[in-house]
């Protein structure tokens, strides 16, 4: 078989694979093609030329990354870590199957921080920190998968390495004088690493249980929480602390779903095991939290932010309902929990936390619920007295204006003055028995404003408009009262041969007392049906009013409040509502309802912060009590 590559001592010759070009030798591509055709390499139904390596995809990207990491070549390592960080957006690594990659990620994460720990500051460079950040970001994204969390939590030295990195970063940002001048140029990478590290710790801390008071990770996280002003860092650090409060005991109570047949035997076995092997631990980290730290956490509830409130409430719930035993009550979980409750509420000192909680928890309990606003009630209809005084019969003459009304109307032009005076001194009526003569109404008007026409011309005020003529005044009456009508009656009087004519206005009557301009204008223009309701008032008691309208209003308001549209139920509660309700219920059961001091400080503080708004809200939304969202027992402390 002839050789495919000619042996020559001359320098390497580049031969185009497509066979074109003037310098192709007899031993070039054409010779390869002839040899290939003899062996059937380029035969078949395809006439096109095939390039070497076509249709061979090679190894997959994950294997390529493994090879790059094993090579140790800087450019290959750069590509491998960058590819892992890019692909971790959609995690595809399984640390149990890809253990080599996981260990490499841990190695590159810890490398610069190990040098810092060994005080080899000059050896730390930008490239090394970039590798560390890529590895940290990949780990952070990969632990969103449960199996990867479990795998990392079982790496013996990983927790210790994370603690050391967290110590370096927290000292750098939160401890004055801990900055190293040789590393100032990578401070931005440190800030990024701190956020990624806390994010990585959040799921992993679920597996670090039964932590003692001296737990290094717990205390560093608490220091970060106490001094940071970064919202995301505060929330994630608080979530980590909540996880570190988790306790577990192998002799803990079995679930209610377990069979009861072997219950006695199980209890005896547990008792024996506990007596023989276990000692009661009263050194849990939950009792290492100070008053100042608790107050700092509780005060965050005053910030109107759902993410912050949710994280704080979850932490408080873990703190209050932790089953860790306190050293003062080594035999009772309940007593240990009650002691922590009093410690949280600061009942023996300032009571600052108690005030904050009883103020904010009710607000958070009803936040974001579909409730009717108590500040939007329908206006109560005006109470109109059917009979105001003992004078039920219409007076014979119009009343005299008050000084204020007279001073105002005196400046009016005509016919506005006449119309306003009629409205204030006369009222509409449906009675046909009441008659007002045209001459009497004109004389009353003329007498009321005699200051205008009776004064001599020299003393008359030029700014006062003259009175409306009598004919125009009478015509204006029917305009002022749309239901009034001017009539001419023929009256036959005994002793007179000829009947005489009587000019009257029907549909109005004098008032007992003058009313305001607004009231007069309204009553003069109201409908005939409203006016007719006033009939028959002579038999009614003084001060009587029509209560039917008010009763209808109350009934409609009650029906609206109790309508299905305003109903809320437990299904409407979100995590903030539920946790607030649970903590508030616990405070009432253990503190408020068991209050024995004569000052009733606890209940009075609850009343102080909630009596001005909570009863109104419950009145507008009674389903809050009906559904059990708000305990009806709480209402007695609001009165």
Automatic annotation (TrEMBL):
Under InterPro entries, the record lists: Chromatin_Remodeling_Comp, DNA-bd_RFX
**UniProt GO molecular function:** DNA binding
Q: RFX-type winged-helix domain: which residues?
A: 418-512
Origin superkingdom: Eukaryota
Transmembrane residues, as ranges?
none
Q: Which UniProt keywords apply?
A: Chromatin regulator, Nucleus, Transcription, Transcription regulation
**Chain positions covered by the region annotation Disordered:** 254-277
For this UniProt entry, what's an example GO CC term? RSC-type complex
**GO annotation terms (biological process):** chromatin organization; regulation of DNA-templated transcription
Protein name in the entry:
RFX-type winged-helix domain-containing protein
Task: Supply the source organism for this entry.
Answer: Candida parapsilosis
């Amino acid at each position: 078989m002839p050789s495919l590559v000619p042996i020559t001592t001359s320098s390497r010759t580049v031969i185009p694979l497509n066979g074109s070009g003037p310098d192709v030798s007899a031993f070039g591509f054409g010779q390869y093609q002839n040899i290939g055709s003899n062996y059937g390499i380029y035969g078949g139904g395809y006439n096109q030329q095939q390039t070497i390596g076509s249709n061979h995809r090679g190894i997959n990207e994950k294997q390529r990354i493994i090879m790059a990491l094993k090579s140790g070549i800087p450019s290959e390592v750069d590509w491998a870590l960058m590819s892992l960080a890019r692909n971790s957006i959609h995690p595809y690594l399984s640390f149990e199957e890809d253990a080599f990659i996981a260990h490499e990620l841990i190695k590159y994460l810890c490398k610069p921080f190990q040098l810092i720990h060994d005080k080899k500051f000059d050896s730390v460079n930008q490239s090394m920190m970039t590798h560390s950040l890529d590895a940290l970001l990949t780990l952070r994204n990969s632990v969103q998968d449960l199996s990867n969390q479990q795998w990392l939590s079982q790496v013996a030295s990983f927790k210790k390495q994370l603690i050391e990195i967290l110590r370096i970063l927290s000292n750098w940002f939160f401890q004055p004088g801990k900055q190293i001048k040789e590393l100032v140029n990578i401070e931005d990478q440190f800030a990024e690493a701190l956020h990624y590290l806390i994010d990585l710790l959040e799921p992993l801390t679920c597996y670090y249980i039964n932590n003692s008071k001296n737990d290094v990770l717990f205390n560093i996280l608490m220091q970060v929480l106490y001094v940071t002003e970064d919202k995301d860092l505060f929330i994630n650090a608080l979530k980590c602390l909540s996880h570190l409060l988790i306790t577990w005991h192998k002799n803990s109570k079995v679930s209610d779903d377990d069979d009861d047949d072997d219950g006695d035997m199980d209890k005896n076995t547990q008792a024996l095991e506990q007596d023989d092997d276990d000692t009661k631990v009263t050194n849990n980290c939950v009792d290492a939290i100070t008053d100042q730290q608790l107050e700092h956490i509780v005060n965050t509830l005053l910030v109107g932010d759902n993410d912050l409130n949710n994280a704080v409430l979850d932490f408080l719930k873990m703190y209050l309902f932790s089953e860790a035993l306190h050293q003062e009550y080594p035999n009772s979980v309940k007593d240990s929990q009650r002691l922590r409750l009093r410690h949280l509420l600061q009942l023996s000192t300032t009571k600052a936390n108690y005030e904050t909680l009883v103020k904010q928890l009710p607000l958070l309990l009803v936040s974001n619920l579909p409730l009717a606003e108590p500040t939007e009630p329908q206006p109560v209809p005006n109470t109109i007295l059917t009979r105001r005084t003992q004078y039920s019969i219409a007076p014979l003459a119009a009343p005299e204006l008050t000084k204020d009304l007279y001073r105002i109307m005196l400046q009016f032009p005509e016919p506005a003055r006449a119309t306003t005076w009629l409205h204030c001194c006369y009222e509409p009526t449906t009675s046909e028995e009441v008659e007002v003569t045209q001459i009497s109404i004109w004389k009353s008007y003329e007498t009321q404003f005699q200051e205008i026409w009776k004064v001599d011309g020299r003393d008359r005020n030029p700014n006062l408009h003259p009175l409306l003529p009598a004919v125009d005044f009478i015509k204006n009456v029917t305009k002022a009262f749309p239901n009034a009508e001017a009539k001419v009656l023929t009256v036959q009087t005994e002793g007179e041969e000829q009947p005489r004519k009587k000019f009257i206005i029907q549909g109005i009557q004098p008032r007992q007392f003058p009313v305001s301009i607004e009231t007069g204008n309204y009553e003069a223009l109201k409908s005939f049906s409203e006016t007719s309701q006033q009939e028959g008032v002579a038999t009614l008691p003084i001060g009587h009013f029509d209560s039917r309208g008010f009763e209808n209003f109350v009934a409609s308001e009650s029906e609206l409040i109790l309508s299905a549209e305003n109903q809320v139920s437990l299904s409407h509660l979100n995590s903030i509502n539920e946790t607030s309700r649970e903590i508030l219920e616990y405070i009432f059961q253990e503190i408020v309802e068991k209050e024995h001091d004569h000052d009733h400080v606890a209940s009075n503080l609850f009343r102080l912060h909630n009596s001005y708004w909570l009863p109104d809200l419950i009145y507008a939304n009674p389903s809050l009590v009906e559904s059990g969202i708000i305990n009806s027992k709480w209402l007695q402390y609001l009165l």
